């Protein structure tokens, strides 16, 4: 990463403080925060998922969404409900959209993010499974992905139970037979559920609700979930067991885990061979967790007596799909979430999440961004701003041609080490370091990815201070190693560019440059001058700026000793002209100076 040649040439328009936007935004209704006022006219989260949104945003709803949700969206944005778009049509439309809402039927591929040209800021998945969204691509493009994880839980569990009971009593097959004019009572003798063992694979929200209901049907319920707490299972009389124990002892297996690389085709030839002969399988999770060819073989050989499937690897499955056609298979077209109640709930849940994210609020259901509780966020707010500004300052001090590769961030705090969430701060320092010297837009979603991609290593260190832990942090220090500085006094004794800041009365201040203590509020822009300490310097610089009507907000001098080397830090509200900066540089006592945009 090469630093910009001249700090004065840095593009001011990249500064987030220049984005015109609303005042006094609510931080997050979801987190119960009512309202916060910000000194800059910018909601905090806007720094993370920033929109250049002077006009109403546009939201593309690509699959059927409940009316109440659509109404919520329309109150805030232009809403384009276009269903059944081909992948090409979606890619064409997306460049005009700030947000996209989908269900399980739309593939939000890398091409979609690439085609958006950076405008797409939020993808809302109106449901749980996000396996149809390329999360890595979303993150790389700084696009937030939110889902609606709770509103369809009961619907999916009820559908699982519906399939379980219908399968056990051949309801679908018998219904088709009666409609065909037959009366085959002996052919459709079923099996009972009571006393049978049900293995719930994936003991999350849906799995838990299925387990509860199955217990009510008199079944013996066991579950396998490597991440579920045993006490939650025990509380409802379910025993957590290993994968092999679950599949080998079950009469019925119900799948409720997400489709991930680890669960893909988890029911395969090898695992079907471990099952009890005559096992019955329900899948309301994702088709991809079953190797469908292996299931056909297991059905044909009688290892699996019956299967009831709501989901398929390819949806809709091809007409000649062997599973769908199999007489021992009951199939539904991905109806798990399809109740009136669930669809209404999901629509509202996703509309609120998407609108909130577009407004710059933190989304409680963000899938690809760290969640920071609201109380932590409120405390960290001024430090978030300080972090970004220290990053911006530090990188502008790097001499052109030096490559920034290694940055050390030190947080000094009287809090216990595990009582400080630095993810936000690190993301904002990264934003400050990268944005001034590139065209990349960095936010909370893509900060770590962007740093890694640029080979920028950010290490973090904690200094634990004695004293009152009332404030989350005393100071933050940013050091850039192995670079030259265009302002030699910014180098510490050990040769790194070093800047340090604190929050004073809620306002970020620069309190150290190299080995020099200064004190200048981090607002507007800053001029740093190195000089031999002597009377009259402040006046000389001040009068040059005054002649141009540039308002000085702050001045401070840090010096080794009276009349020795000193650094003068001057905060200015307006950007001085090149001519004024040149005149400051020509003051004979000034040995070195740099102008830095914040
Ligand atoms: N058919 C439909 O219309 C619907 C399908 N679903 C699907 O159901 C699945 C579960 O949904 P929720 O319960 O809401 O999600 P959840 O996130 O609450 O639960 C998933 C559980 O699976 C567990 N898990 C992860 N890897 C596992 C593994 N290798 N083995 C066993 N368990 C594992 C997790 O620890 C978690 O407890 C998702 O795939 C979702 O997409 C959800 C709603 C409707
Ligand atoms: O929420 C889920 O994971 C589902 O599978 C529901 O999918 P749908 O929104 O009905 O296409």
From TrEMBL:
Annotated CDD domains: ACT_3PGDH-xct, PGDH_4
Family per similarity comment: Belongs to the D-isomer specific 2-hydroxyacid dehydrogenase family.
A UniProt-annotated Pfam family: 2-Hacid_dh
Task: Kindly indicate whether the keyword Transit peptide belongs to this entry.
Answer: yes
Q: In which pathway does it act?
A: Amino-acid biosynthesis; L-serine biosynthesis; L-serine from 3-phospho-D-glycerate: step 1/3
Q: What is its EC number?
A: 1.1.1.95
Summary of subunit composition and partner proteins: Homotetramer.
Keywords, ordered alphabetically: Acetylation, Amino-acid biosynthesis, Chloroplast, NAD, Oxidoreductase, Phosphoprotein, Plastid, Serine biosynthesis, Transit peptide
Tell me one GO biological process term. L-serine biosynthetic process
Broadest EC class assigned to this enzyme: oxidoreductase
Q: What is this protein called?
A: D-3-phosphoglycerate dehydrogenase
* Location(s) in or outside the cell: Plastid, Chloroplast
* SUPFAM superfamilies in UniProt: ACT-like, Formate/glycerate dehydrogenase catalytic domain-like, NAD(P)-binding Rossmann-fold domains, Serine metabolism enzymes domain
Q: Which InterPro entries match?
A: ACT-like_dom_sf, ACT_dom, ASB_dom_sf, D-isomer_2_OHA_DH_cat_dom, D-isomer_DH_CS, D-isomer_DH_CS1, D-isomer_DH_NAD-bd, NAD(P)-bd_dom_sf
Q: Which reaction does it catalyse?
A: (2R)-3-phosphoglycerate + NAD(+) = 3-phosphooxypyruvate + NADH + H(+)
Q: Name one GO cellular component term.
A: chloroplast
Q: Which residues form the ACT domain?
A: 526-598
GO MF annotation list: NAD binding; phosphoglycerate dehydrogenase activity
